[in-house]
Write a structure and sequence with these properties.
The complex is a heterodimer. By secondary structure, chain A is α+β, with helices and mostly antiparallel strands. Chain A has 15 helices and 16 strands. In chain B, the strands form two sheets. An eight-stranded mixed β-sheet of chain B has the order 4-6-5-10-11-9-7-8, sandwiched between helices. Chain B has a three-stranded mixed β-sheet with strand order 1-3-2. Classes of the chains: A alpha+beta, B alpha/beta. The interface between A and B is large, with 28 and 44 residues.
C-alpha cells in the first residue's frame, strides 16, 4: 500500500558489519480535540476529574442510547485539515470498529474508516540533531485525518485481582492524524510531532499537552537497506513524549537490524514502549490482531459539509507557524533560527510579539529566547506559567534602551523579576541600580582611576588595549551603574587615546 | 355499563370526554381483563398500581381542563422501550433486573399526552422472531385459536395479543422486518410502521438501527392514527429522526380514495401462496376499486432479494448493537476465569438461541473477507429496492399487498426451522429496507376462521395516504370478528 521513495541522508544511516540500513517511520498521532464536550455526548471533558463523574448514558453504553455528533469537533477537524494543507472531504462517514473490552462500553468504537473527514496533505519539517544542528527541510505526507472516540481507562493497580474502569475519557473526541512513511530518522519523527503540535496549538484545535496524553503517537518502524525493499513494520503504541519517540525508534530499529542480521524475520506486531527500561516489548502479535468488522454506523448520518461552511472556516484561520516564521524574518529582521524557535509554538510567538511591540526586535528576541526561555528551561516551568510576563519583560528592555540600566545590570534585574521580586522599575528603584549618567560624577571616577593607576595610564598611551582595564576599574567603582559609553568616551579623552 | 374493554381507543377517549366514565374506571376494567388474560402471557411486567394512580391523576387533570391526546387511556408498552423506574427486559435474560433511569422518547411523548401504562409487553428476545417464541419469558399465546395454541406472530406478539384480547386499548410495538404488521395480521388488529425516522429510536433497545421503527398496534385504523400522532415527532437525540411536523393523520382516516392509484406488485404473487390469502388480496383489490381507487399493476423487480438482504443487514447491525450486553455495567453477569471467559459465559447464558444465531450471522457477514460478498452486496440490494419503489411511485400512490404469507400457526411448529420462520417477513421487509410506511389492516378470516391482514405501503412521509387507503379498506372489509374469550 505504501511506497517510500526517499532515501535517508547518509548521516542517518545505521552502519553495521553487514552494511548500511535506513529507518522508515510513519506516525499515527492522536490529538484530543479541544472541546468542552465529547464527540457524541454532552459529557464534559475536564482532565483530572473524579473517576466516572463525566459519563453520560450514551458514554456508558446504556440500552437504547444514541450518539449525536458534536459539530464543534467536526469544525476543529476541518480547521486542522487546513493546517495540514490537506484536502477537506465534503463527504465523510462514521463507522463502527467492533471489539470487546471493559473500557469500551458500547462494544465498538465510533471512528471513520472508509471516508475520513480530511484526506491527503503535506507539512514541511526541519529535523534538528542532538547538537542543535538544523538539517535540510523534509516534506512529510499526511495520509488522512479522521475523528474517533477515545476509550475509557482501565486501572489495574488498585487491586491485585480486580480491574477498575474510569469512563471519563470514554467518548472524548480524538483526531487521528496518519502520516505517510516519510520519516527516516528519530529526529525527523520528533520534529514532525513537534510541528504537528505547533500547528494544532496555533489553530487551538488541540492543546498539545503530551503529559496529559492529549497528544500521543503510535510509531510505525521498519528498516531496509538504503533505497531497498521495505521491511516488515512494527507499531509502537501510545508514545507520549518527543524524547520517548526518539528512544523508541532507536531501540526498535536496532532490534529489527539485530533480528535481520541474525537471519531472522520481523513479526508484524503491536508493541509497547517501556520508558523506564527504554525498550519496546510485544503487546499483541499479528495472529491476535482483531477483525474489527468495520461497517457504517447506522445510528449516524453521513457528514455532508457545505462548501460555504468549509470556506468560512478557511477564512477564519489564524496565522500558521510557517507563515508566521516568514513574517518574523521579513518584518522583524530576525535570523531564521530565532524565527523558527519563536514560531514553533503559538504561545511563544504571541509572547515574543508582545515583547517586540515598539521595541528593538532583535533585543526583544534575545531577551525572550536567551534569558527568559533559558531561565524557564532551567526552572522546568512552561511559558504559560512564566513568572515574568511579556509586558514585564518589555518593561525591562525599555530600561536598557533608555539607558536607565546597562545590559549587564539588566540581567541581575531579570533574575530578581524571575524570582518574583517585582517589576523592572520597582527593582531598579529598590536596589538603586539606576545607571550613572551624570558626566561630572563619571569624570570624577575616571580621574580617580587614572590617579590610582598612574603607571598603567602612561602605558595605555602606547597600548590602547589597557583601556579595558580602566573601564573595568570605573565600572567597579560605580558598582556597574556608570553608563559604559560615557565611561569609554571620557577615558579615551583623559588618556589621550 | 357495557364492558369498557370492548371499546376502541377513540370511543373511550370520547366517553371520558363526555364524562360517561372516568379513566380510573376504564383502567380498572382493563386491569381486570389483564388479570383474566394472564394465560396469554402477553405481559412481562405489569404496573397496575402505578396505572391506577396514573388514572386518578389523569382524571384530576381532566377535571382541571388539561386533556392530552391520550388522556386517561390505559395502554401497554412493548418491553423494548425503556421506561423510567420500570424494569425493561427486551424479552431477554441478559438484561437481568435492568431498570432504566430514563424514559424512551416515544413513551415520554405518550406520557406527556396522558397515557396510563398498564405494563410492559412480551416480545421475541430483542425483537428477533416472528412468533414470540424466542422470548426468555415464554411464548405469547394468540387469543385466536383452533384446537391448539397459536402464536400471535412476532416480534410484537405481546402487543398484538393484548390488543386483540382487549387487555388494553392499544399498544406500542416496533417493526424491524415486519414485527408490527405481521402480528397485527395474525391477531386481527391494525398495526402501522411509519416512515423510518418518524418515531425517535432514543431509549428503545436497538435491534437493527437502520431498520428499527416504532409504531402502534390498535383495534382500528383511526386508533392507530391517534396513537401514532402521539408517538411520532422530531427528536434531536436521534440523528436519524426526521425533522418534520406530525400531520393530522386522524383527519386522513375516512377521506375518500377516489382517484387514488393503488399499485399491485406482481412479484408479491409468490409460489405456494395460500389460496385464502390470494383470494383476500383479490377481494381487497375489488374493494379499493369499488371505493373509487384506480388499480395499477406495478413491478418491484428486486423483491425476491429483499428477504436475503434483510437477513444480512439486520443481523450485521444486531451483532454490533448487542455487543454492549457484556455483563460489565448492568444486567446478567456470569463470572468466568478471565475477562474473555466472563464475556462468553455471560452472553451464552444471557442470550437465547435465535439471538445467538443472529449475532453469529452478523459477525460472519461483517468479517474480513466476507464483508463485500454479504454486507456490501446486501446494501446494494437495498439501494435497488429503494429504486424499485421510486419507480413505482411514478404510476401509483399506494401499494396493496398481503401482510403475511400465512395465518397464525401452532406454537412450536416453525420454531425449529429458522428459514421457515424468516419467510414470515417476505411481504413486510421491503418497506423496512426502503424506510417506507406500511400498515396491516384486518380484512377477513381464512377457512379455519383465523384473521388475515392486508398491507398498504405508502411513499416516505406520506402516512396520510396510507391511513386514507387503510380506512377505506377497513370500511369495505367490515371486519368485526373477535376471538372467543377462552382465556377468561
Amino acid at each position: 500500500m505504501f511506497i517510500a521513495p526517499r532515501i535517508a541522508d547518509k548521516k542517518d544511516w545505521i552502519t553495521t558489519d553487514t552494511g548500511d540500513w535506513e529507518i522508515i517511520i510513519g506516525l499515527e498521532v492522536h490529538a484530543q480535540v479541544a472541546s468542552e464536550s465529547k464527540l457524541f455526548s454532552g459529557s464534559a471533558t475536564d482532565y483530572g476529574s473524579a473517576p466516572n463523574t463525566q459519563v453520560s448514558l450514551v458514554d456508558a453504553g446504556m440500552p437504547g442510547m444514541l450518539p449525536v455528533v458534536n459539530e464543534f469537533c467536526i469544525e476543529q477537524a476541518v480547521k486542522t485539515g487546513f493546517g495540514l494543507n490537506a484536502k477537506i472531504n465534503l463527504f465523510s462517514r462514521f463507522d463502527r470498529k467492533n471489539y470487546f473490552y471493559v473500557d469500551l462500553p458500547q462494544g465498538y468504537q465510533i471512528s471513520q474508516f472508509e471516508f475520513p473527514v480530511v484526506g491527503e496533505g503535506e507539512i514541511e519539517i526541519l529535523p534538528i540533531d542532538a547538537d542543535g544542528n538544523v538539517g535540510e527541510p523534509v516534506n512529510v505526507g499526511i495520509e488522512r485525518l479522521h475523528l474517533e472516540q477515545d476509550a475509557g481507562k482501565s486501572v489495574h493497580d488498585l487491586s491485585p485481582d480486580e480491574t477498575y474502569v474510569d469512563l471519563n475519557r470514554c467518548g472524548v473526541a480524538l483526531m487521528e492524524i496518519v502520516s505517510k512513511p516519510d520519516m527516516r530518522s528519530p529526529e525527523e519523527a520528533s520534529a514532525y510531532v513537534e510541528k504537528l503540535r505547533g500547528i494544532v496549538r496555533a489553530l487551538g484545535t488541540c492543546d498539545g499537552d503530551m503529559e496529559k496524553g492529549n497528544l500521543r503517537a503510535d510509531v510505525n518502524v521498519s528498516v531496509r537497506r538504503p533505497g531497498g525493499e521495505l521491511g516488515t513494520r512494527c507499531e509502537i503504541k501510545n508514545v507520549n513524549s518527543m524524547r520517548f519517540i526518539r528512544q523508541a525508534i532507536n531501540y526498535e530499529a536496532r532490534r529489527h537490524i539485530d533480528i535481520l542480521e541474525a537471519g531472522g524475520e520481523i513479526d508484524q506486531e503491536t508493541r509497547l514502549f517501556d520508558s523506564v527500561k527504554g525498550e519496546t516489548r510485544t503487546m499483541r502479535s499479528k495472529e491476535d490482531a482483531h477483525d474489527y468488522r468495520y461497517f457504517p454506523d447506522p445510528d449516524l448520518l453521513p457528514i455532508k459539509l457545505e462548501q460555504s461552511f468549509v470556506d468560512r472556516i478557511k477564512s477564519e484561520l489564524p496565522e500558521m507557524p510557517d507563515v508566521r516564521k516568514a513574517r518574523f524574518m521579513a518584518d522583524y529582521g530576525l535570523p531564521e533560527y530565532d524565527a523558527r524557535i519563536l514560531t514553533s509554538d503559538k504561545v511563544k510567538a504571541d509572547f515574543y510579539e508582545t515583547v517586540a511591540k515598539g521595541r528593538d526586535p532583535k533585543i526583544a528576541s534575545n531577551w525572550t529566547m536567551v534569558e527568559l526561555f533559558g531561565a524557564l528551561n532551567k526552572a522546568g516551568v512552561e511559558l504559560e506559567d512564566s513568572p515574568v510576563s511579556a509586558d514585564a519583560l518589555g518593561g525591562l528592555i525599555d530600561r536598557i534602551l533608555d539607558d536607565t540600566i546597562s545590559g549587564k545590570i539588566a540581567k541581575g534585574v531579570f533574575e530578581k523579576m524571575f524570582a518574583g521580586e517585582g517589576t523592572a522599575d520597582g527593582i531598579i528603584e529598590r536596589d538603586g541600580l539606576k545607571q550613572v549618567t551624570d558626566m561630572g560624577a563619571i569624570e570624577a571616577m575616571v580621574d580617580k582611576a587614572i590617579a590610582d593607576n598612574a603607571a598603567q595610564a602612561e602605558k595605555a598611551k602606547e597600548n590602547p588595549k589597557l583601556l579595558g582595564f580602566f573601564v573595568g576599574q570605573v565600572m567597579k567603582a560605580s558598582q556597574g551603574k556608570a553608563n559604559p559609553q560615557a565611561v569609554n568616551e571620557i577615558l579615551r579623552k583623559k588618556l589621550g587615546l | 355499563m357495557s364492558d369498557l374493554t370492548k371499546m376502541t381507543l377513540s370511543g373511550a377517549l370520547d366517553g371520558m370526554a363526555k364524562g360517561d366514565f372516568s379513566s380510573e374506571e376504564l383502567t380498572k376494567a382493563h386491569i381486570d381483563a389483564c388479570m383474566d388474560g394472564a394465560d396469554l402471557n402477553a405481559f412481562i411486567t405489569t404496573t397496575f398500581e402505578q396505572a391506577i394512580e396514573g388514572a386518578k391523576a389523569s382524571d384530576a387533570r381532566r377535571a382541571s381542563g388539561t386533556v392530552g391526546k391520550l388522556e386517561g387511556a390505559p395502554l401497554a408498552i412493548k418491553d423494548l422501550f425503556c421506561t423510567e423506574g420500570v424494569k425493561t427486559t427486551a424479552g431477554s435474560k441478559i438484561l437481568g433486573d435492568f431498570t432504566p433511569t430514563y424514559e424512551s422518547t416515544v413513551t415520554a411523548n405518550m406520557k406527556a399526552d396522558g397515557m396510563v401504562m398498564l405494563g410492559k409487553l412480551n416480545l421475541d428476545e430483542f425483537a428477533m422472531g416472528s412468533s414470540n417464541e424466542t422470548s426468555a419469558f415464554g411464548p405469547v399465546i394468540n387469543p385466536w385459536r383452533n384446537d391448539v395454541d397459536l402464536v400471535p406472530g412476532g416480534s410484537s406478539g405481546g402487543s398484538a395479543s393484548a390488543v386483540a384480547a382487549d387487555l388494553c386499548l392499544g399498544a406500542t410495538a416496533t417493526d424491524t422486518g415486519g414485527s408490527i404488521r405481521q402480528p397485527a395480521s395474525l391477531t386481527g388488529t391494525v398495526g402501522i410502521k411509519p416512515t423510518y425516522g418518524r418515531c425517535s429510536r432514543w431509549g428503545t433497545v436497538a435491534f437493527a438501527s437502520s431498520l428499527d421503527q416504532a409504531g402502534p398496534i390498535a383495534k382500528t385504523v383511526k386508533d392507530s392514527a391517534i396513537l401514532l400522532e402521539s408517538m411520532a415527532g422530531y427528536d434531536p437525540k436521534d440523528s436519524t429522526s426526521i425533522n418534520a411536523d406530525v400531520p393530522d393523520w386522524v383527519g386522513a382516516c375516512g377521506q375518500s380514495v377516489k382517484g387514488l392509484r393503488i399499485g399491485i406488485p406482481k412479484e408479491y404473487q409468490i409460489d405456494g401462496m395460500p389460496a385464502d390469502i390470494q383470494a383476500l388480496w383479490d377481494q381487497g383489490i375489488e374493494w379499493m376499486k369499488a371505493a373509487g381507487a384506480e388499480i395499477v399493476p406495478i413491478s418491484l423487480p428486486h423483491t425476491k432479494y429483499a428477504l436475503p438482504a434483510y437477513y444480512v443487514v439486520a443481523p450485521a447491525e444486531a451483532s454490533s448493537n448487542l455487543a454492549r450486553y457484556d455483563g460489565m455495567r448492568y444486567g446478567l453477569r456470569v463470572d468466568g476465569k478471565d475477562l474473555a471467559d466472563t464475556y462468553e459465559r455471560t452472553r451464552t447464558e444471557g442470550f437465547g438461541d435465535e439471538v445467538r444465531r443472529r449475532i453469529m450471522i452478523g459477525t460472519y457477514v461483517l468479517s474480513a473477507g466476507y464483508y463485500d460478498a454479504y454486507y456490501l452486496r446486501a446494501q446494494k440490494v437495498r439501494t435497488r429496492i429503494v429504486q424499485d419503489f421510486e419507480n413505482a411511485w411514478e404510476t401509483c400512490d399506494a401499494i396493496l399487498t398481503p401482510t403475511a404469507p400465512s395465518a397464525a400457526f401452532a406454537v412450536g411448529r416453525k420454531v425449529s426451522d429458522p428459514v421457515q420462520m424468516y419467510l414470515n417477513d417476505i411481504f413486510t421487509v421491503t418497506t423496512n429496507l426502503a424506510g417506507l410506511p406500511g400498515i396491516s389492516v384486518p380484512a377477513g378470516l381464512d377457512k379455519s376462521g383465523l384473521p388475515l391482514g392486508l398491507q398498504i405501503i405508502g411513499r416516505a412521509m406520506d402516512e396520510a395516504t396510507v391511513f386514507k387507503a387503510a380506512s377505506a379498506l377497513e370500511d369495505a372489509a367490515g371486519f368485526t370478528a373477535k376471538p372467543e374469550a377462552w382465556w377468561k
